[in-house]
Amino acid sequence: MKFNNRLNWYIERDGNIEWISRSVTVLAILLFVLTDDRGDRHFVPLGKRGDGLPDERGKWALPGGYLDWDETVGEALLREVYEELGLNLLDLQANSRQFKGNLEQPYFVYSVPQRLQNVTLWFPLMFWVEQLPPLAPQVPLDEVAETQWLELAPTVAQDLAFGHQNIIRHCLQHYYQWPESEIP
Question: Which ranges carry the Nudix hydrolase domain (predicted)?
Answer without folding.
Answer: 24-173
